[in-house]
Amino acid sequence: MTAINSEPELILTPSAPWEVLESEADELLQQLFPICRSLTGDGVRETLSTLQRVTNFEVREIPSGTECYDWTIPDEWNVTDAYVSDSSGVKLIDFQKNNVHLVGYSVPIDETMSFQELDEHLHTLPGLHDAIPYRTSYYHRDWGFCLTHEQYSRMDRNAEYKVRIDSTLEPGSLTLGDYLVEGDSGQEFLISTYCCHPSLGNDNLSGQVLWALLLRHLKGKKTRHSYRFVIAPETIGAIAYLSQNEHVMKTLSGGFVLTTVAGPGKHGYKQTFLGDHLIDRVVSRTFKEEQLDHTLYPFDINGSDERQYSSQNSRIPMGTICKDKYFEYDSYHTSLDNLDFISAKNLVATLKLYISAIGNLEMNGTYRSLYTYSEPMLSKRGLYPTIGGHRKQKAMGQVKDQVEKKCSANDAETPTALDINAMMWVMFYGDGLASLLDISEKTGLSLKVLYGAAVKLCTNDLLEEV
Ligand code: ZN
After folding, report:
1. CA of 100 to the centre of ligand 1 (A)
2. Ligand 1 center from residue 26 Cα (angstroms)
3. Does the bond joining 245 to the residue before it have cis omega, within 30 degrees of 0?
4. What's the 279 CA to ligand 1 centre distance in angstroms?
5. Residue 133 alpha carbon to ligand 1 centre in Å
6. Which range, of 33-42, 237-246, 274-283, 380-389, averages the lowest pLDDT?
7. The model's pTM
8. Cβ atoms of residues 378 and 422 within 8 Å
9. Ligand 1 center–CA 171 separation, angstroms
10. What is the distance in A from the centroid of ligand 1 to the CA of 129?
């Protein structure tokens, strides 16, 4: 028998029933949502340590001032309180009620000022009256508050306001996490997400929770490929990771940026910069197999960390499966992107898609037929029913027609019509060059069915993996 790794199918089996994963995801979302995250600071540490309880991974600190290519790790920002109050001490804008109220990286302040002075530091969304916008000022020392336009309209233009921000902005470090799930194919893929937004749900608490659940899932399996999991603040964190791991990052084969995975809308897929890379093709097959109505987004330079990881020096093709993609929903980057907008059920639905896509990636081997003169005689190897004639003929096995119909009753070992079809296709195209993904695209048969056929054929010395 030709050596073959028969584990990849197991990738598709969840570590716990999906409903159990949903309630776990829900608990994590509730627990992590209130934390004030930013590029740096204790909010990121608290988030990562909570996720480490799901599954362990390395946490690393990169000191402020460290040069990372063209960028420098900024000072660390922490905040304990922030508010704007009126003359009678009533807090009109209160960080404790919603951390999105405070512009990220605001410098400390304790002053009383006129509305006009304060107004220069206020941010609202006139088009979305009841939403607090999310704003940051990472690389320009400033301060500010965000509030709903409704709140803003009610503020007395002639009054004086007390403004207080108890924050610290001083040398510390940037915190990130990583873990390598090791396979033996020599191919490595990147699974990244970002952890820097305060109390916002879909963008990107949902991505962080999915990242941890997916990491735990793959750690529990024997994988063919390696998977490098990275969780870091967006942009600067990805750049820092690239600069500190340049040698290995240049060798990666592709990957995914996990973001906005739990909204109520349609699933979507943002293609890699290549558009027809293995990652794109695997996701496309996965969506077809799931018969998933989805939106396709071509690569765009505006987005997330794919533009760092896909930079010319590393050029890792990165795709993104999302559910309500960033930029596309009204509450994006506002306080309305909250726990009412997302759900653990939606998150786990996207987790399933990622598991299926990675399962397909794992099952996508390339094989060579060891018998090429004609169709091999399958029946003498027990790979074909002994009574002929009743097999449903199909020129091309359409995915939706993949009925597991036994050729002979009460015999689990007897191949189905689908199995036979798949074995014949794999023998026909398996020339050492065509991958199972190629054959899947040509025939419409799922990777799982083709992979099962390849395993059977290898076991019977009719096929070998290249
Ligand atoms: Zn964002």
Report:
1. 12
2. 21
3. no
4. 23
5. 11
6. 380-389
7. 0.94
8. no
9. 25
10. 20
Q: What distance in angstroms lies between residue 197's CA and the mean position of ligand 1's atoms?
A: 7
**CA 19 to ligand 1 center in whole angstroms:** 28
For ligand 1, the distance from its centroid to the CA atom of residue 137, given in whole angstroms, is 14
CA of 204 from ligand 1 middle (Å) equals: 7
* pLDDT for position 389: 62
- Adjacent-strand bridge partners of 63: 173
Query: Which of the two residues, 415 and 64, has the higher pLDDT score?
Result: 64
Q: How far is the CA of 102 from the centre of ligand 1 (A)?
A: 15
Res 400 pLDDT > 80: no
Centre of ligand 1 from the C-alpha of residue 219, in Å: 28
pLDDT tens-digit map of 350-396: 999 999 999 999 999 999 999 999 999 998 998 987 776 655 554 44
Mean of pLDDT values over 438-444: 97
Rounded CA-CA distance 333/205 in Å is: 12
Q: How far is the CA of 60 from the centre of ligand 1 (A)?
A: 22
Tens digit of pLDDT for each residue in 262-284? 999 999 999 999 999 999 999 99
Cα of 200 from ligand 1 centre, angstroms: 9
Q: How far apart are the CA of 233 and the centre of ligand 1, in A?
A: 10
Per-residue pLDDT at 398: 44
Q: What is the mean pLDDT of residues 97-110?
A: 98
